[in-house]
Write a structure and sequence with these properties.
This protein has helices at residues 8-37, 41-64, 73-86, 92-98, 154-170, 176-188; strands at 109-112, 125-129, 133-138, 143-149, 204-205. It is α/β, with parallel strands linked by helices. Residues 3-86 form the Protein root UVB sensitive/RUS domain.
């Protein structure tokens, strides 16, 4: 299910209309079945279990059918790992199908939009510095920090997050050319690079 113009509100509207239809159907079923099974406890629990399973499975399939072209943290991690292993960007549908529904566990920690004082480099940390952002990666603790310049925009935030994920996976900072190539491959693969679903704090820095 693709949202119109990647609008989550469009998906919510479709989900709301689906829920209304299901509720009407459930009401009709209950009116028909209650007189038949009201005195049979076993039948009541069997039907309850059956309809609960159908409802949960239907919602699971509905969520799995969603196809978002904007990257969240889970999709970003999957896309970068797949790119490092295959040196190509998989399609939007392939990556969305790999995104876990319930568990999003990761051994690394990401801090987006930190104060510049929080991302100070040291001898045991990797760094990537450009005019729009600064990325520091601590390989020992598997922590990553991103600080954004005041002149940066949404696209720069995504580039910084991609840079951090590449550093955590490659254990080395990418070159500016590698990062540019990766972003262009993302764009060619159908992903949106001018918006994202990552959580950034509002701290920024400016050069004096």
């Amino acid at each position: 299910m693709m949202a119109i113009l990647d609008n989550v509100g469009d998906v919510a509207a479709k989900d709301g209309s689906q829920e209304t239809l299901i509720n009407v159907f459930a009401l009709l079923c209950s009116l028909l079945l209650l007189p038949v099974v009201s005195r049979n406890i076993v039948s009541v629990w069997l039907l309850f279990s059956l309809f609960t399973f159908i409802h949960l499975y239907g919602n699971y399939r509905a969520v799995k059918s969603l196809q978002f072209r904007t990257l969240n943290q889970s999709l970003l991690r999957i896309v970068v790992k797949d790119y490092i292993e295959t040196r190509k960007i998989s399609t939007v549908s392939e990556m969305n199908s790999k995104e876990p529904i319930l568990l999003h566990w990761s051994s690394s920690r990401h801090y987006y939009g930190c104060r510049l004082s929080d991302v100070s480099a040291s001898s045991n940390k990797l760094s990537f510095v450009c005019s729009k952002f600064t990325v520091i990666c601590d390989l020992r603790s598997n922590y990553g920090y991103v600080s954004m310049a005041s002149i940066s925009n949404i696209s720069d935030q995504l580039r910084a997050a991609l840079c951090l994920e590449l550093m955590l996976n490659m254990r080395a900072p990418p070159s500016p050319l590698e990062l540019d190539e990766f972003v262009e491959n993302l764009k060619s693969g159908g992903w949106l690079i001018n918006k994202h679903r990552l959580v950034f704090d509002r701290w920024t820095y400016s050069e004096k």
